[in-house]
Structure formats: structure tokens, C-alpha cells
Write a structure and sequence with these properties.
Blueprint (H helix, E strand, L loop, with lengths): L19 E6 L5 H11 L9 E6 L5 H11 L4 E4 L5 E2 L3 H11 L3 E10 L9 E4 L13 E2 L7 E2 H4 L11 H9 L6 E3 L6 E5 L10
Parallel strand pairs: 1-2, 1-3, 5-9, 5-10, 6-7
Antiparallel strand pairs: 3-8, 4-10, 5-6
């Protein structure tokens, strides 16, 4: 896929109300990762005309970029997908019926691969309102965070600090008191998170 560098925002155009927007922060030197993600994600929008995605190639810390994308979205619900991660082939098929019910947030199951280790065996994390603590690596039950689809009007009550890392933890702590209702997207992994102790290209995205 040839990735356009301008404008900073792109996506599947829709003339209808946008129920769900996937926010993908990226950088021009990460085209390999973005192309890999879009191979799985982009075809899913054909069946969901009230969903779209947006990519942002802008500069700045990842915290500032996430904050900008969240504030400028016009969708009812938003979720981040990082460019060097992957999602399941039924990502939208599982999320959109949950959003139609109108919850504050959608709980997800996430498969985490550590520093290039094989997917199996590797830990499964569940992000849900059922769990009241935001554990980092000490357990696999965690509160909702930025990768969970949530109402944008609730998401903006928290903030991503202007940080190069750790911005997601601060956001999760801030948004939790505002989340009250949830739909569960299922026990099979919806999001495939590739944890790297060193980021590709030493970049901020």
C-alpha cells in the first residue's frame, strides 16, 4: 500500500454519521508497519459504512499526537490502533454490534507478544470494567484503556499527557471514573499487541 504523507489525516470517506473511528498514529518512516496493519484492517470497512479510520503522520510526542487525534475526531466512539500492532480479521464485526447497544466502553481481549517471542505461548490480557485495578505487567486483568472503543465525549474527559511513553497509563487512570456501562467483545483476542522494549526506528509513535 502506498501511504500518502499529506494530508495528515485520511480514512475511508463516509457521507453517513460516523459511529466509530479508528485512530492510527504513525510516522512516514513506519510505512512498513502501517501497510501490514492496513492489509488486515482496511478491507473490514467495506461492510461497515458508519465506521472509518484516520491516520496521523504529524510530529510530536505520542501523548500529544493521541490527544490531538481524540480531540479532533467527530465520531461517537473512538479507539486507537498503533501502527506496529495488528487486529483480528473480525475486529469491526465484533465491535460494531456492541456499539449499537450504546455502552460507555467496549471491553476487549488482547494478545501480547513480548520482544519478538512467538504468539504461542504468550499472555492474554483482558481490559474490562469488571477489573478495578490498572495493572501493568503484574497480571492479565486490566481496566479499559485507549485501545478499547469508548464514547468520545467520555474519552475527552481524560487527557494524554505530553509524554514519549506512559501516556496511555495516565489516560486510563483519568477516564476510568467516567466509565459506567460496558459491552464485551468476546474472549478471543481482538487486538494483537507486539510489545517492544525498543521502539522501531527509535520514534515516538
Amino acid at each position: 500500500m502506498g501511504v500518502k504523507k499529506k494530508p495528515l489525516r485520511m480514512g475511508k470517506p463516509s457521507r453517513k454519521r460516523v459511529l466509530f473511528e479508528v485512530l492510527v498514529p504513525t510516522l512516514p518512516n513506519r510505512e512498513f508497519f502501517l501497510s501490514r496493519l492496513m492489509t488486515v484492517l482496511e478491507p473490514q470497512f467495506a461492510a461497515h459504512p458508519n465506521a472509518c479510520y484516520v491516520c496521523d503522520w504529524g510530529e510530536g510526542s505520542i501523548g500529544a499526537k493521541r490527544q490531538r487525534m481524540m480531540e479532533t475526531s467527530k465520531a461517537d466512539y473512538v479507539a486507537f490502533v498503533d501502527d506496529d500492532d495488528l487486529v483480528s480479521a473480525d475486529y469491526l464485526d465484533r465491535i460494531m454490534p456492541c456499539l449499537a447497544i450504546g455502552p460507555d466502553v467496549v471491553g476487549i481481549t488482547m494478545h501480547v507478544k513480548m520482544d519478538g517471542q512467538p504468539w504461542h505461548p504468550s499472555p492474554i490480557f483482558r481490559h474490562s470494567l469488571r477489573f478495578k485495578e490498572n495493572k501493568t505487567w503484574q497480571g492479565n486483568e486490566r481496566t479499559p484503556h485507549h485501545l478499547c472503543p469508548m464514547r468520545r465525549d467520555i474519552a475527552v474527559r481524560s487527557r494524554f499527557p505530553n509524554l514519549m511513553w506512559g501516556e496511555d497509563y495516565n489516560f486510563a487512570l483519568g477516564v476510568l471514573p467516567h466509565l459506567h456501562t460496558e459491552e464485551w467483545s468476546g474472549d478471543e483476542p481482538l487486538y494483537l499487541y507486539e510489545y517492544r522494549s525498543r521502539k522501531p526506528f527509535d520514534s515516538e509513535a
